[in-house]
Every structure is written in C-alpha cells, then in structure tokens.
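User: I'm writing a tutorial on reading structure tokens. Could you give me a worked example: one chain, its sequence, then its tokens, then a sentence or two explaining what the tokens reveal?
Assistant: Sure. Here is the example chain.
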Amino acid sequence: MSVKVVVGAQFGDEGKGKLVDWLAKDADLVVRFQGGDNAGHTVINTHGVFKLHIIPCGIFRPECQCLIGTGTVVNPDVLIAEIEMLNNAGISTSKLLLSENAHLIMPWHVKLDEAMERAGGIGTTKRGVGQAYADKFLRNNLRAGDLHDATTIRDRVSSHLEYVNAQLAFMGAEKFTLDDIMDKCLYWQKKLAPLLCDAFDVVHSALSKGARILFEGQLGAMKDIDLGIYPYVTSSNPVAAYAAVSGGFSPRLIDSITGVCKAFSSTVGDGPFPTEMTESDAALLRGPGVNPDDEYGARTGRPRRIGWLDLPVLRYADKINGFDELALTKLDKLDALPEIKICTDYLLDGKVLRNMPNTYDLYRVEPAYEILPGWLSDTSRCRTYSDLPENAKQYVQTICDKTGVPIRYIGNGPERDSIIRL
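And here are its predicted structure tokens:
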C-alpha cells in the first residue's frame, strides 16, 4: 500500500494537474479531496489539451479508478459537461465515481455568488463554491446521494427555497421555483446516479488491498480557509491533512506528501502578494495568453499576478503540510532572465520575521532578496538533471537548501513527459 498526497505549496496554479497526470501512471486510485470547479487543472497529453475543474487528473490513465471525494462541492452541470468533453475526446470515464456525501452546488449558490460579487466581493470565480460550503455548514444543503430519491430532493428543496429566494430578492437576483429545481435535479439524477458510491468504502477497500492511492488537492496552502491569507482564500482546506479528514482514514496512513511549487510565484484575484513584480517584468513570464501554459487562470482566463519565488511561503507551506518532497514546475519560464531574484525572508518594521504574519501585515512586509545568475539557455529540451545548465542547477539547489525539502521533480515544459525525475 502507498498513499501519496499532492498539494499546492503557494497560491494555487502551481501545476498540480500535470504532476498528478504523470504520477497516476503508477496509481490504482486517484481522489480529488476538496474544493469545487472554481479552479482548473491543466493536462496536456497525446489526447490534447484539457482543463479539468472537478474530475481527478488520473482520468487519462485507463487502468486508474478516479473518485470525486466527500470533501468536494460539485456542480452537477459542470461535472456532466466535463464527462461529455472527455468522452468526445475518446477518454473513457467508466471508472469515474462520485461520493454520495459530496455536497452539491445548487443553481441558487451560483446566483448568490454572482450577486455578492456585483455588490463588491473579494474576487471569486462566481461558481457558487463558497455558498455551497456555507450551506454545508449550516446543515441545509443537498448531497450527491440525495439524488437517489426524488421525494427526498423535493422535501429538502421545498423546506429551504423560501429562505433562498428571500436572499436572492434582497440581492436583486432572479428567484427559483420548486419546479425549476426539481426538473434540474431529476436530470442530474438520470446522468449521475451510475457514478454514486460509498466513498468511505471505496477508500478503505483500496487501503485494505494495498492499493496505490493518490490524493489530488486543489489550489494551495496560502488559499486555505483557516491558514491562508483570509479573507482572500478559498472555502475549503487544500492541505494534506484534509485528504485524511475527507477520506475518513488516519493521517498516519499517508506515506508521502508532495508540495507543488512554481519556479516563481503567481496568484489570481485580490490579496497581499509580497514578491509581486512590476508589470513589465511580469509580462515576460506571463506570456501572450495563446499557449496552454501561459499565466492565465484555467477557470477564469484572468491574467495572473506574477512574482519572484517566495521562500517564506514555501517554508510556511512545509510547516502546514510536512512535505517529503517538492515538485518544481515551469523552470523553463525563467530561461530568458539574466538574473533571478529569490525572496529569502520578510522584514517587518526592520525585523526579520520567523513566522507568517497576518494578512494585513503581509501588505507591509519588505521582501529580502537574494539575486542569482540566470542561465540564458533553453531548458525545455533537458530530460535529466545533468542536462540542465549549471546556473539552473544552482537555482534548484538554493531552493532545496533554504527550504530543507528535496526537489524530486522538475517541470520544464507543458507536455506530460516534460518532467525531470531526480
């Protein structure tokens, strides 16, 4: 048995999709363990370019079972569209499962999210994810397993709809009728009932058989609802421990935790971003937006904010997760830079900080930089570590030395096989 968890070590958009797709060649089960369709995992392989928002990235490996786990919130319309997209591309989804205990993103969640953003929100993707998690914790949401029974759906919706419509009316949004929601849910029932499963049993059966299990996180440590840059965070816990929480097993069964980080930093939306570059520098790394690995949101298409690599963030993410290894992605994006900055510490009021400050102090910190020489050569063709230029090796080794975590994978291109295994 082996249980590996892959999580983001920065603000999300680190390249987890590519790594999970690559690692899934050795997995029996891949589990997406939290989040909704508010972010995208980009995978490029022989079938084409895919941006998955809720289906695990192991789906491209025909021998691998994929589970949308209990900790997720699922918009059934998005899931159905994603299944159809994959099937149309010749990708089988016959081994895809959906936890009966996963919560549903209902149409009113999306409308409320849109209305709240119009009223001055924090810059969400308007997918209804936060509203679905809010209803989960208010204990009045629908779960995927409720789709088994139309009577249960009608009872649950009718008891909640008056409250929902009052919220929508207050926000100036269109209200729903019970028939609207029932028609939608019966369609979902028809499409998704074959996928529904007891996720606890699926996970524990795999554990008992000694299966190789890969847990796939969404977003990154700095977007964690409890430990991230609140309020500029997601509505779930994209940290390794939550794989065990949502999977219903002891965290002692986790064998290895892989943190995925870019060779620089990026984020989307509002919030503090200490190492943010000037726009002229950022444009060099962001790209024009026509290539699949350009720095634009996979869900929103918004240009990402770009910054230098932030080691205080990586060290903080390591404390939260306990990384056994790092996967450093997009090294090739730095190929044309004559010199490269790395933020080694934060200074606040002239003092070096030992821990991650609160969100509002992060606006005030001054990054302390170490400047390394660039390598000014194409690394995208390198297939072994020894092939890399010496200055690129120095950059990689500096990250290892200053975080205390070994780098085991280096991504140097968008394609599936553009990974150097150390």
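What the tokens reveal: The chain has a mean pLDDT of 93. Residues 241 and 387 are 36 Å apart (CA to CA).
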